[in-house]
Amino acid sequence: MGASARIFEDRINITANEIETISAIKGFKNPIGISVDEYGSFGRSFLNVLPVAQSLNSFIRHADVVKMGNFTTMTSLLSSEPGKGTFKSPLFYTFKLFSNNCRGNSIDTYVQCDTFNTEKYKGIPYLDVTSVYSKETNTVFINVINRHQDKAITADIINTTGTMASKAEVSIVSSDSLKDQFTFEKQSQYLPVVKEVALSNNDLTFSFPPHSFAQIKIAVKK
Hints:
The protein is α+β, with helices and mostly antiparallel strands.
């Protein structure tokens, strides 16, 4: 998961740099955005959910240049079983949390945590994090992916600007197994687990389950 996410993000960075270079050479005055066409992940297990969440985090992180992302038509946000019907899986709920809530301004987010290595990349952080501020609702949404396969990671989330509300709401999308196939009978288990967390001195501490996606919702005091 970590290597594929890094490759995906590298391609966005390379394309953004090429656009910046060509724009400077040609003297283009209007900005040129990137459209990521037909991204997605094939499969019906949690192993295919986290790459989509990481892709969405990449879009937020590069919101200055990525202006459109089209989920591939070859896969569906809904799962299905012959003779039983379609149902909402963790993939659906992950996409819903991003698409419904992450509307506004991408916020620079600094992450310091343990890292891991792959054959090609070194120092990949276990926590993949983005933040979005919604001016309409005066709310900050923090999107956290724990890429560690079997270890929960406790993190201190420190706010450096503004005053947050005293409580935050955390929606967690996770699974006991990365490889078990989603089933119609277990669809009620795929709903996000929602927890309320108290802030202390404008900061909060939370333990993110292994191989999970969590979205933290915090109101900003005016």
